[in-house]
Design a protein that fits this description.
This protein is of the alpha/beta class. It is about 50% helix and about 10% strand.
Length: about 525
Amino acid sequence: MSYLNTLEEAVGVIRANANWRGISEEAVARMRLQNRFRTGLDVAKYTAAIMRQDMAAYDQDSGKYTQSLGCWHGFIGQQKLISIKKHFGSTDRRYLYLSGWMVAALRSEFGPLPDQSMHEKTSVPALVEELYTFLRQADARELGMIFREIDKARERGDAAHERWLLDSVDNYQTHIVPIIADIDAGFGNAEATYLLAKKMIEAGACALQIENQVSDEKQCGHQDGKVTVPHEDFVAKIRACRYAFLELGVDNGIIVARTDSLGAGLTKQIAFSAEEGDIGDLYNSFLDCEEVANRELSNGDVLIARGSKILRPKRLRSNLFRFREGTGADRCVLDCVTALQNGADLLWIETEKPHIQQIASMVDRIRQVIPNAKLVYNNSPSFNWTLNFRQQVFDAWLSQDKDVASYDRTKLMSADYDSSELALEADEKIRTFQRDSAASAGIFHHLITLPTYHTAALSTDNLAKEYFGEQGMLGYVANVQRRQIRQGIACVKHQNMAGSDLGDDHKEYFAGEAALTAGGIQNTMNQFVA
């Protein structure tokens, strides 16, 4: 709704109530424009529509892939979007990712935890709500600054600039963007998944990412010991998420079905199979089995029939069953096809390295069944990107009979190679990885799960080294504050960022000339005006 229409609406409401003395119609209009998204469901519906449009655009042009960065605090998410708007002028095709890993490591009341679904499940929707609280505040702050400029233009009698500012309000692009939220393996059975999904959607999540691991054995996708569930179990959780979306009226909500089968060699259950060739039989066909005769049976053995043979799946002391070596890619393809055929919208294949050909080989097979299959891909900090890509270039050169005698493949991470031809080619492949894999491997969305975990550690290390060392206060001033000022980082005026100016506006709305505001001449933030 436009500024003038919102003002007209406010005028009608207030003038109908003659005893509302001192209420400014324009202040009400401004507050309404600053609070466009009143509930999490408003956010979820708005962002789901954006994501659906982006998915359709990607189907027409793979160059229109989307990106996000993971975050563990509302302020971090807010600053990312402020930076995106500052540098690129638009939030188009840029999202946020909510990582279960970071929730476990940084937001659990138990303290730092591994990514094993041991953290409080309610901390995930709480973070969704917190992120959108900070993004709403970014809208209110930025619009408030425009409103102040409108008042100044009026005081100067500059009608042309006032019209330009009003137009900028009418065409304002919000900081509210889609969040892809990690629901792990659902934190329990399908009912538990449904209940948690509702909480996450009510907080504003338009996209839920769920994985096919066993809830009580859940592991980080880049660690060992992963255990998957039969397809019917996973499909039940996908349906639970869909029912949650539909119950809450977010009819176009997005479900991202993640398969960990590439690195998961274990299952806790043998799938139910009613007939040969059904989905349970296909799942069981990957089990590592040995043929048995009656006299070889032991107490507690589990047996399955495969054609005319009676087989005993190999079971560990942990009561888990093993899959055959080398079946991971085949299981991933079956997982993905089954998920898309049962209500999932996007896929996530967790890999052990960033390798375009590996991903593309599976996506090509999936697309033989479902032509518009699309992936969300984890550009994970768990990968050593430098080493992986230098080794890929080394191997490619070796296959092309190019001289690699000056390189030691096992030591390619060494800084000695940083300026070498091989390292420069590897860096170029890293730079174009997202674009190239979007075109050839069906990746619609690229994300980095844990970027701010690592940037916070790096920047803190640098500050600690300087501040507690010989540089003292100059370590902060030269490397933090001065760089913020030079780069135009908004939060250098941290009082404004925290809402002090918004509070002053409200004080003036509420108390008029009697308002005691914080932004007067003695406010030290005035030192940063230049």
